[in-house]
Fold these 2 entries.
Entry 1:
Amino acid sequence: MILLLKKEFRLCLHPAALVMLATSALLLVPNYPFGVSFFYMALGIFFICLDGRENHDAAFTLALPVSRREAVRGRVLFGACLELMQLALCAAFAALRSRWIGADNQAGMDGNLALIGQGFLLFGVFNIVFFPAHYRDIGKVGVPFALGAAAMFLLITLDVVATYAVPFVRDVLDTPDPAHLGAKLACLAAGAAAWLILTGAAIRIAARRFEALDLQL
Amino acid sequence: MTGNDAPLFVRGLCKRYPGFALRDVSFALRPGTITGLIGRNGAGKTTTLNSILGFVHPDAGEVRFGGLDMAGNARAVKQRLGFVSAGMTYYTRRKLRTITDVTRSFYDTWDEAAYRRCMSRFGLDEDKTPAALSNGMKIKYALALALSHGAELLILDEPTSGLDPVSREELVEVFLSLREEGKTLLFSTHITGDLEKCADRVIFLRRGAVAVDQPMDDFAGAYRLIRCPGEVPPALRALALGTCAVRDGHTVLLRREDAEGLGARIPALDEIMTHLEREGEA
């Protein structure tokens, strides 16, 4: 798996994905729906898969001594690595924001630990929608991305609404750190657990679909 | 050849698509030979290769590589197998050096000295990207990668398509030298002139089935071609395997034994193929 991840980083990393990492800095913007920062990395993963299709990545990978299942796991884990990098950068920018600007945000969740938990959940949902749909037919990238992005924006919208309409979210989670740290850590842990479960399921379903796929190369 | 002796053994391969079916394709390659897989566009060449390589799942049939099937031995089989396709260019903006570095890491059997020899022999510069290579050079780079991990069997899908005659000639010379080194090549093409120069055996696919599987010399020698001004006489039409219209009449493909005394000539491979495609229409 290390070899496949090395292959992904050296051959498949699209410059757009690196640019998307920089969108973590959006957490410094006053009153911005921070969940959108996570969407940008989903866009980066979309560009990687699109570029992979144009560069016959599947044919190259399957010509190597690896199985289809390993090829899928390599690609999804590559996406997962980028997501973790985005989350780490967002956490760093959230810390900077609360120190220099103040964590308060009127357009959704504050830049705090609960936001990172939400980011995990958003990425998990994107992974479980996008990768199985993409590996049903690797020639198709746009429709799976549209589905994944739609799911993410639905959750982002719900989050913004919840910060006004749901008392627990408004009064406990949507507050500057370190207030209500226990609840936010629980939110972070729940988000990370959801991400692990959903990403693992995405690998299993996508691999099963890819193994059944007839590739017209 | 048996399933255990042959570098590639295919038996009863079937694959059905809407409007096309690969039907009971069977053949075996002999070690150290070049086999041409010919047929018109849509005859099933690429479907056959994709089924052999496991890119598509055949409905039925058996494929063995030196006695091993791909499903249970993918890693071992791919160590000994090289696939080169003219239509496929990988990572056009990455340097060859980067692509090689990644490829090298997957193979226990990588031979760096062999790789350096291939790059030098083919005149390839590692600092170039695939986008900067001609089509012929792209094929040579793919061959260099395959040969450097010790591939004994090379499957080539239309390797000379889109190349100028000089580049095609160069590649044919490369294929012949690989055969001298003991490599086995399966070479799919519809440019039959290239095969006439290098193939030991010909497999002719027609409408998804193997129409001919013969040594090249037997295949080429089994037919004769005559030219008829105007219409084909009925007596000749009865013997014809296929006819094609030409500027001043028709050409007729006959079995060699039917053509004695008729002033027929030995046909080229593409003439045999085009006439046999018309079999039954005569």
Entry 2:
Amino acid sequence: MFITFAFVTLLGALGMLLQKNVIVAGLCMVATFFGVAGLFLLLANPVAAALQIIVYTGAIMVLVLFVIMMLNSHEEEAAQTARPVQRWVSVALVAALAFGAVKLVLTSAGLKALAVSGEPMPGAMTLQKVGTTLFAEHLLGFEVAGILLLAAMVGAVALTKRNL
Amino acid sequence: MTGMDAILNGGLQGYLVVALLLFAIGLATVLLRRTLLMQFMGVELMLNAANVALLAFARFRGGDAQATVFYLFIIAVAACEAAIGLALVIGLYRHRGTTDSDRAAGLKQ
């Protein structure tokens, strides 16, 4: 199961990177988000999986697809100036970063110890546990997040409205 | 479960490798694609990679609810970022008729 969801996630992400059409890239992104939700389910966290599907695939990607269709820019425009050196340097840097980080994860003694002698696996995460923690210990953060969302909403309207 | 076995069967290292590769693909999208909307999707991908690593660590360190609460805060900030970022892209398109980040390099019109 893990390897299936990991493949869905990474293939969706690769498809997004390589796809020329922006709408198809957005749909590849939806596949990636579903794969990540599956990974969260395997981590015994159905709350996070549900939030992932509702917020990312349900809200953020729909917003992005709306904007893509509104702006009518389905294909990437031709490059104004070709920058082959910069592109190859960034490909090399990303490849080096990914290779080095994966190698570090696989050889890290601390992670190995954690994977072997980590805490015992508890039961699945429940909404009740999340809610209790949220309102008992992070009430201020919750309120600030609400204010932040309100400010973002007002800001988005102010930025897109032509004559306010 | 360590090494190759952990990667194939979903140990901690397997999740971390997926998160790292997801982050690398997101970074490559931001660096290589020029359409602002694609770069925006790359940023979302990197945020998601961080979430995968956070929840994987939380699960393998005893699985308390703190990480899920912080995941909730992270997606609240990501939703704000999506709304403001897309509003800025629309504003740029109205001003210059393009969503190409190379064509929007100057501050002056």
